[in-house]
From TrEMBL:
GO terms for molecular function: oxidoreductase activity, acting on the CH-OH group of donors, NAD or NADP as acceptor; quinone binding. This is 3-oxoacyl. Belongs to the short-chain dehydrogenases/reductases (SDR) family. Residues 16-188 form the Ketoreductase domain. One of its GO terms (biological process) is fatty acid biosynthetic process. SMART domains: PKS_KR. Coiled coil: none annotated. The keyword Endoplasmic reticulum does not apply. It comes from the Eukaryota. Keywords: NADP, Oxidoreductase.
Length: 280
């Protein structure tokens, strides 16, 4: 059998339905937009209702279809609601989950408080697990359709990073979750699961100006922008073979590639999207 011409006139993800967490801005929002342009219906899941709704409106303005489901992925009720609303929106189908919501709450090991630790593990590990578990009925299906889970990691999870013990552990943890999903749901249901691990990407997470916060579920604020911006890129790009900071577009294209039929025989892998940083 030969490979047919690799064009997908209806889009790489035509007819599919995706949940993308943390999709109100940054990497998740760009992923929602590129998925939509490739024919996918998208549930934009995020803490930030106003920004999630703006992403949905922009997608609809381009002729795509999306819904905003606002809430906190660390809350059980929200996970159930997200799966239920997406399944309704998708006429009973969900094909893709991108576990992307997250931020870092950094300190050196000796200063990390239990609350800091628990928050980061709950956000990056427990929440993705619970979302995948809640969506199991939509993935454990033998109908021959493409389905995949993508968990977002970081070079910190693969190589470690001084000052990021909780984040590094959590981002390493999703790699084990990914491989286990691939092993459990691949043989019978054909579900692919891959991790996409980013190096530095220019988003609010890394570049927020002084004074920008994530509001935690308990109402307290957490400062973001831990690198005080990449506005002096020469300080950061010395160990990056491509000698530039990545963009949300670079990140979203890699997630799209991983979700697409071009990666139909790729599962259980950690795709490094880091400009080559950290080793090749
Ligand atoms: N930007 C980078 O350099 C970089 C590098 C490696 C990995 N990552 C990872 O990529 C993912 C996206 O990061 P980004 O840079 O786009 O950040 P971002 O801050 O621009 O966007 C993250 C989104 O996640 C949402 N979010 C946070 N906590 C949430 C919760 N409890 N429930 C629902 N939504 C929540 C935020 O509201 C925000 O909209 C994260 O998992 C991050 O750890 C980013």
């Amino acid at each position: 059998m030969t490979t047919s011409r690799l064009n997908f006139p209806q889009g790489l993800l035509a007819g599919q339905v995706a949940i993308i967490t943390g999709a109100a801005q940054g990497i998740g929002a760009e992923t929602a937009r590129v998925f939509s342009r490739e024919g996918c219906k998208v549930a934009v899941a995020d803490l930030d209702q106003a920004k999630a709704s703006a992403v949905v409106e922009a997608i609809k303005a381009e002729g795509g279809d999306a819904i905003a489901v606002a809430g906190d992925v660390t809350k059980n009720d929200y996970i159930d609601l997200l799966v239920q609303k997406t399944a309704e929106f998708g006429n009973g189908q969900i094909h893709i989950i991108v576990n992307n919501a997250g931020y870092a709450w950094d300190d050196p090991i000796e200063k990390i408080q239990d609350k800091q630790w628990d928050t980061i593990i709950s956000l990056h590990n427990t929440a993705p697990f619970k979302l995948v578990r809640a969506a199991a009925p939509y993935f454990m299906v033998e109908d021959g359709k493409d389905r995949c889970i993508i968990n977002i990691s970081s070079t910190s999870g693969v190589y470690g990073n001084a000052g990021q013990a909780s984040y590094a552990l959590a981002k390493a943890g999703v790699i084990g979750l990914t491989k286990t999903i691939a092993l459990e749901w691949g043989p019978r249901f054909g579900v692919r699961a891959n991790t996409v691990a980013f190096g530095p990407i220019k988003t609010r997470l890394t570049t927020a100006p002084e004074g920008e916060f994530v509001v935690r579920p308990d109402g307290t604020k957490h400062a973001v922008g831990f690198h005080h911006g990449y506005d002096e890129p020469e300080k950061w790009i010395g160990d990056i073979p491509l000698r530039r900071i990545g963009t949300p577009q670079d990140a979203a294209k890699a997630i799209l590639a991983t979700a697409s039929p071009l990666f139909s025989y790729v599962t259980g892998q950690t795709i490094m999207v880091s400009g080559g940083r950290g080793g090749m």
